[in-house]
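Good morning,

Attaching, inline, the backbone tokens for the sequence recovery test we're adding to the shared suite. The designed sequence is right after.
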């Protein structure tokens, strides 16, 4: 362990000498905490390597791999935003349909808005929690497929929780709107 630590410090010194300009440019654009990063503080890198909670971090060896992960993250984010937008449009069409048919569209919009807010919040929170915890586990050893599995499972769990929350909240709001007592067995 001591030999590896000495080797890491030697590599760090060599990196500082050979790539001084590039590292300075990188550090100017990417601010770090007061402890620094592995690029500015060799002890930080050694500490991270020794710490057990960092054992499943990604081993990125090229900028191409980093760019692939960034693209995957951005595509997953836009897919999530797209799903939220489609949900909002479908709910709006449902309310408009009730308005056109002469139904009680105030009741419909109340239920749809409450269901949209609650299901979106629960879906995002569940998806983020599952993805984060799966990504921090051993799934990252399967990189890049581990990321796809983690994001996919987080997406599926968030979607399932969102649907369940939507059903419960809409039913509760409709019952409140109609001033009916809520019976948990009939939801």
């Amino acid at each position: 362990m001591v030999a590896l630590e000495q080797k890491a410090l030697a590599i760090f010194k060599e990196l500082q000498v050979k790539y001084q300009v590039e590292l300075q440019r990188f550090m100017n654009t990417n601010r770090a905490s007061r402890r620094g990063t592995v690029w500015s503080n060799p002890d930080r890198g050694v500490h991270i390597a020794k710490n057990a909670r960092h054992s499943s971090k990604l081993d990125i060896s090229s900028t191409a791999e980093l760019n692939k992960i960034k693209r995957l993250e951005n595509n997953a984010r836009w897919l999530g935003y797209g799903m939220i937008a489609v949900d909002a449009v479908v709910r709006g069409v449902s309310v408009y349909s009730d308005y056109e048919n002469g139904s009680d569209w105030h009741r419909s919009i109340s239920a749809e808005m409450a269901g949209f807010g609650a299901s979106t919040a629960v879906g995002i929170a569940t998806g983020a929690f599952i993805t984060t915890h799966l990504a921090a586990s051993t799934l990252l050893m399967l990189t890049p497929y581990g990321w796809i599995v983690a994001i996919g499972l987080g997406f599926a769990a968030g979607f399932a929780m969102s649907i369940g929350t939507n059903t419960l909240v809409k039913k509760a709001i409709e019952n409140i709107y109609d001033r009916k007592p809520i019976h948990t067995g009939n939801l």
